[in-house]
Structure formats: structure tokens, C-alpha cells
Amino acid sequence: xxxxxxxxxxxxxxxxxxxxxxxxxxxxxxxxxxxxxxxxxxxxxxxxxxxxxxxxxxxxxxxxxxxxxxxxxxxxxxxxxxxxxxxxxxxxxxxxxxxxxxxxxxxxxxxxxxxxxxxxxxxxxxxxxxxxxxxxxxxxxxxxxxxxxxxxxxxxxxxxxxxxxxxxxxxxxxxxxxxxxxxxxxxxxxxxxxxxxxxxxxxxxxxxxxxxxxxxxxxxxxxxxxxxxxxxxxxxxxxxxxxxxxxxxxxxxxxxxxxxxxxxxxxxxxxxxxxxxxxxxxxxxxxxxxxxxxxxxxxxxxxxxxxxxxxxxxxxxxxxxxxxxxxxxxxxxxxxxxxxxxxxxxxxxxxxxxxxxxxxxxxxxxxxxxxxxxxxxxxxxxxxxxxxxxxxxxxxxxxxxxxxxxxxxxxxxxxxxxxxxxxxxxxxxxxxxxxxxxxxxxxxxxxxxxxxxxxxxxxxxxxx
Length: 464
Known about the structure:
By secondary structure, the chain is mostly beta strands. It folds into 2 domains: 7-118, Immunoglobulin-like, CATH 2.60.40.10; 126-463, YVTN repeat-like/Quinoprotein amine dehydrogenase (Methylamine Dehydrogenase, Chain H), CATH 2.130.10.10. Helix content is 3%, strand content 42%. The protein has 2 helices and 38 strands. Strand 18 and strand 19 (238-240) form a beta hairpin. The longest helix has 8 residues, at 13-20. It is globular, with a radius of gyration of 23 Å. It starts with 6 loop residues before the first strand and ends with a strand.
């Protein structure tokens, strides 16, 4: 960021405010200041003027101005901020109020803007909408990469790019998860693609000049049938990767096994597939087999939190500290097929792992995969095809004894093969089902501020 900013907390507000001021000038508040509620968050927008430093103040009291905020409940100040400004991890169902003012060169703030307000909500069960049918091709995988994080939560995404992949090399991308653009696979590539994910090298690269921010460098990787893979540095132009022995050579690996899922951490991508195949890449072209592969069963899902967890056929569960060295639990948890897995985000209060599978099966670990709870079967649920997790804060939720009395800070959302969703804050107690507009999904994914589902015949749905 070109400009130094100070984030103020109430306890130190007076000291920090004094430290951020200089001898500049006051300025009018931002024009067209507006607040839009979202999934556990609020987005603030105004007409940008890059010569002016804007400060935003928030509280849960409608009397807020740029000058009285410090004495109000849940008060915060955010200094020298961009637009749009994403504020996340807010209490869902509580109304938040915002005011802003402007200054130049560290001067005192000018007059306060009109107060605006918004009430964050939980999109997982209340906000699903039918999306466009992108093509006749079945969509098998949905992924996302963050471009900008929330101003008050640097581990939570504020905005980014979605991608979907499917039959015959189908690829689609979207900036909002609602409208989709077709992207061409390389000439002659017709393999089915099952999973996709992306990585952004440098988030929050705001450009302090009129116009859109320049997207930071990206890397997308998608995997599929017969060990096929593609990679892209912009989500638009795709090249053939090296995991398949018949396409390009790779380091210490060749595979013709189907690859069903992929995750990434810090730009290292790890994919899993049939016959216990586990392999990784840092560039989408050169792939490396895991140091050990302790199962010969098909693996269908992988996620990364504080640890990596892979799941698959006959209740297979594997854990790894680094994505290369893997081990299985000492005793099987379930014999039912497990399809997908999600792990509470790093920075949340607990390391909860939730895996879902056939016949409504759910298995949960409250300690990063070391121990697993008894199997939960959702009554009447058909096969569960996906599970995902977002940071969420619920108003008036007390400490949870299942989490050793810590207050829940994540919400898991599972989807079944008929498009119904189920939710849980601890992975053990579940609510639902709630029907979504999609009836034949194959994949569902959370961006950090909403959900996208896609399925057979190119059908899509979203909740933001």
C-alpha cells in the first residue's frame, strides 16, 4: 500500500489518533457514501478521490458521527481506507452504522458524512438464487482465489475471482459468482475436469489512481480425468500441465489416475485421486508425488487448515503436516465413502475438520484430525456432495462446551445431491435442511463472503 494507515481500537484511540495527525487540511466527506449488507459483512462504497484520505467510523448506535464514535458500543475507526471497503466478521443480525470524513496530508478530519447503516446476514440458508445455465456440459468443480481481503480481517476474502470446470474441458470464470464467462481450453484438450483452485501472490494491490485496481499475479490449477491438468496465470489463458504421463514430463511422477480434488496453501497445490494418488505442484507444470501414499483407495476430497486432510473411498481419512508425508487414523471412523472435507480457517478458535459423504454421513474432528467423533448421519439426507466453511460471528451465541467453552467462530455448510443445505457451528450439531434452487449439484464452494454451487447440465446457484 502506498499510504500508511492506522487501525484504531477503542482502548488506544486517543493515542493513535494523535499519532496519525500532521499539519494537513480538512476536506469534505466522501460523496455517495453507502453501505451494503452481505454474508456476515458490510461493503462501504463512495466516489473515489485519490487525493483525499478518508476515515470511516462504525458502531452499533445510530447516533454515530465522525466525532462521537469512540463512546459508542462496538466502536471502531478505519483510517486512510480504499473503496470498496470490506468489513467482515460482523455480528449477523445486528445493525451497524457508519460515518466518514476526509483530510489531506494527515490533517484534522473535516465534517462528518451522513450516517448510513446495514445489517449483515447469513447467506447460507436465506439468500440462494438461481444462476445462469452456463452450457450443456456438466460442471464438476468450483474454485476461488482472493484478490482483496477484508480491511478488519486480513485472513478473510473481500473480493476475488471464481472458476468452474467440467466435462470435456469446460472452464468458466466469474468476478461475482453470478455471471460467468467461458474460457477456452487448449486446442485438442477434451478431458473431463473435476476440481479447480487458485492462488494470488499479492493481495490488496490497490492502485491510488482513478480506475480499477490492477489484479495481482495469479496461478490457477485444474485437474481431472486420467491425471490431466491445466494451469493459468490469469484465469483466461490456459496451458496443459504436467501431471499426466501422456502430456508433459513431470518430476518424480507420472500418473494416469483420475484426480478428483485440489487445494493450495501459499502457492503449493496438492491434488488427490484414484488409487490413493497424492501429488503436488508449485507451477502447474512440474508435479511431485507425495513422499508416501498410505492408502490404495480412491481419494475424492482434500482441504488444508493447520494440517492437510484427504478423504475418500470406504471412509478413508489421511492427514499430513506438509502435504507430502501422510498418515491414517489408527482406527477407521466409517466405512461409508467420504466425498469432501473442510477445515475451519486458521485464526479461528478451534481446528475443526468436517468430512461428508454417502448416505448423509458426517465425521468430525475437533483437534485437527487427531481424534474423530462418532459418525453422524443426517436423517433422510441423500449423499452429501460437498462441505465448506466460512468465518462467521453469530450475535448472542454463548460459549460452546463442545469447543471447550470457546465461542463459535466458523460456520460449516454441507450440500447434498438434491441441493439441500445443512449448517453447523461446531461440526457436531447440524441444522436444516434448507432447499436451494439447484436440484442436481456436483460441487459447492465458499468464497469467504458467499457460496456458489454448480451441477449437471451447467446449472448454477449462488448465495451472497
